[in-house]
Amino acid sequence: MRSHKVLLGLLLSVLVLANCQTGAAQGKKPKVVILATGGTIAGSAAASTSAGYQSGAVAVDALIAAVPTLKDIADVSGEQIASIGSQDMNDEVWLKLGKRVNEILAKPDVAGVAITHGTDTMEETSYFLNLVVKSDKPVVLTGSMRPSTAMSADGPLNIYNAVAIAADPTARGRGCLVTVDDDIHSGHDIVKTHTTDVGTMASGEAGLIGATLFGKQTWYRRPAAVNTKASEFSIDGVTALPRVDIIYAHANMSPDIIASAVEHGAKGLVIAGVGDGNMTAPAVEAMKAAIAKGVIVVRSSRTNGGIIRRNIELNDDEIGTVASMELNPAKARVLLQLALLKTKDAKAIQGYFDRY
Fold this sequence. Notes:
This protein has 356 residues and is an alpha/beta fold. It folds into 2 domains: 30-230, Rossmann fold; 244-355, Rossmann fold, CATH 3.40.50.40. Helices cover 32% and strands 19% of the residues. It has helices spanning 2-26, 60-65, 91-105, 122-132, 155-166, 256-263, 281-292, 316-319, 329-339, 346-355; strands spanning 31-38, 75-84, 110-116, 139-142, 177-180, 183-186, 191-192, 201-202, 210-213, 216-219, 244-248, 268-273, 296-301, 322-323. The strands form 3 sheets. An 8-stranded mixed beta sheet has the order 2-1-3-4-5-6-9-10, with helices on both faces. The longest helix has 25 residues, at 2-26. The termini are far apart.
């Protein structure tokens, strides 16, 4: 009798498991929320071949409606966070976007978030989110180089791929991602490299995170730097970020541009230095004066490649500067803004640049 009961229990367990699997197969599609910020992907022009257009003119509902096949891969809804060209991206929108992403991802039924964004500052926003998102669920930015009204607009397929990646459980734990032109980049590495070319986005020496083909992903690697759920940065309760300016180094660079930034309230400076993060001798003296006033100075490079290591071009230990490592000036500025929320100690901030 007991053996019959055990057998019956096993049969019931198998039936329950089969029913669960059938329910999962027939169940709801993964839920993905699209957060729209504007950009070229939401741009509108007077003609399909016009080079000029208005960024952020198309609302998120229209972007979703333009890709009807989204319903085949996910349960999609949209929210309008901003309607701006990304040249106008600012700290206020960053904080609003980051907080909203965290709120959405905290919901158990949400698989991931896709974000439409202009390409001009996408590398900064994606890195900011890479540092402040508190979930390992996918966060995927996308954009386009042609407005929505253009002939052969690249936005619709980019949106489709972004939603597919956000819905893909294998995308979890890879940090904030960016997909454009069938490529998948890490928010830590992506940079814009061309003014108008559709293939403008690149990940330099780090390489792609993966590739996507009509919503089917192939993964190459995971990011090495600390990100998202493991990040120690938080924007909970943060209403403003410290002012950090980028100073572009050049031949015959004047020291007064550094002094002016400090006089106007910069709490941190990133020097987009020549070569391996260098600048003119008078500029170095102005930098030392800024550091003496409590301003944190990070040395980066205008070359957009390579690693700025400590104590090579300049003696960082002696001067008190921070080496940006592999971060370009735009990304170094983002990290410095968040680091200054936690400390004004240059050695501690160097630790952040080493890890993030």
